[in-house]
Sequence to fold (176 residues):
Amino acid sequence: MRRALDSLYKLCGVLAAAAMLMIAALILAQVFLRFFGSQIRSADDISGWALVATIILGLAPTYRHNAHIRVTLLIDRFPLGTPFRAFLERAVTALSIVLVGWAAYVSVHFVWESYIYNELNQGLLAVPMWIPQFFMAFGFLVFLIALVDDLVVDLMGGRQSHLAAAADGDEMPVER
Fold:
């Protein structure tokens, strides 16, 4: 199960990186094509969708590697290993599960409605909106899974992934 979950988180990271590369490629292509008086149709729409995909698909992997910006003003007042600190970490994770669960539910519902009503992009390319919206819903669902994964591991006596990454001092490990 651990290998499958880690593969899912890694897939999201790869998709986020691919979306970022797509933005870069679109920008370079647009700059190049301007010299010839041409452009890519709906490049701004595609770039916007890729930006959302980059951000939301990147949530789970960055969370797992402690690469998110965390406001630890309250939590850092309690030393690591104390029962109250552990309680706060669990409470924050549980609250995050509720909030991200709501975002995932709304996103999936949003994608479903776009699919049911056959909503199309209003730009130059008539793209079914559920296609770019799918990446938002998928990213939130995987982030929700990562949060639940961490809470379950914590409640079973393990260490939440972002805390383990912080303790190792290796927020974004480089694979060899």
About this structure: The chain has a mean pLDDT of 90. Residues 75 and 89 are 8 Å apart (CA to CA). The helical segments are 2-34, 43-57, 59-64, 83-116, 130-155, 161-168. The chain is about 70% helix and 0% strand.
